[in-house]
Amino acid sequence: MALRIQDLSVNIGKTPYVQGASLSVPTGQIHGLLGPNGAGKTTLLRTLYHAATASTGTIHAFDRAITDYSPYEWAKRVGALVQSSGLLAGLTPQDIVEIGLSILELDKSELIDRRDDALALAGLTDKATQPASNLSGGELQRCYFAQLLACDPEIYILDEPTNHLDLHYQLVLLDEVKRRGRTVLMTLHDLSLAMRYCNTVYLMSQGQIVGRGAPQHVLTREILMQYYQVDGQFHGAALTLQGPV
Ligand SMILES: Nc1ncnc2c1ncn2[C@@H]1O[C@H](COP(=O)(O)OP(=O)(O)OP(=O)(O)O)[C@@H](O)[C@H]1O
């Protein structure tokens, strides 16, 4: 099993924002964390890149506990695309991708190849040496996506990876992740994308995983009504929405 989370709880102060969550992602599968705003999805993911500490529970990657890895060793194998608006301080997209790649200690020619291939995939070749502070929201998201694709870790942790992306790049970049056959755990609000990409989804509500399974089995009309307060239904991969309830 590539990633195994068992009975994970995260308290902030005394409040539990994730409670007793367990999930396992087999090697090469894409699993999705779904649920309404504030359900605890990001908080759960944050424990996987050392931005939050589990109050109880265990996290294993490749049958080794996260606590048995150095943060550096973990970051080489488990890469994350997070919702951030980092300080760009004069950096270019090339710099941003290179900073990510520095952890891999590559020789210069491989570093340049990986950097340029990833920037090309993200459609940023023409802007590679311009200040990243001039990029649009979607272009900046593509830049951070390029950083992760250049590093190409064994496990991808993606928090709302399609944030700001137009439809073309949503599909190009997620298709690329899928094509690589990596293990992925990602949060998504776009349920159609969950249908398209996820082998398994987990529905979170109020810090708990309240549903799990193949997306077509989890995302029923009743579930959409109960947890998202919308009247909608999937027909195959197409979602028909009547409206909020
Ligand atoms: N550091 C913090 N201090 C206080 N509350 C926090 C903190 N971090 C998260 N929370 C709260 O924890 C809850 C879960 O937040 P989280 O970001 O995990 O939700 P989410 O499911 O990712 O939501 P969204 O879909 O809106 O991104 C929210 O109510 C949030 O306000």
From TrEMBL:
Keyword ATP-binding annotated: yes
Domain (ABC transporter): residue spans on this chain: 3-231
Alphabetical list of InterPro entries matching this protein: AAA+_ATPase (IPR003593), ABC_transporter-like_ATP-bd (IPR003439), P-loop_NTPase (IPR027417)
Transmembrane segments: none
GO molecular-function terms, A-Z: ATP binding; ATP hydrolysis activity
Keywords per UniProt: ATP-binding, Nucleotide-binding
Cited PANTHER family: ABC TRANSPORTER ATP-BINDING PROTEIN, HEMIN IMPORT ATP-BINDING PROTEIN HMUV
Annotated protein name in UniProt: ABC transporter ATP-binding protein
Lineage, highest ranks first: Bacteria, Pseudomonadati, Pseudomonadota, Alphaproteobacteria, Rhodobacterales
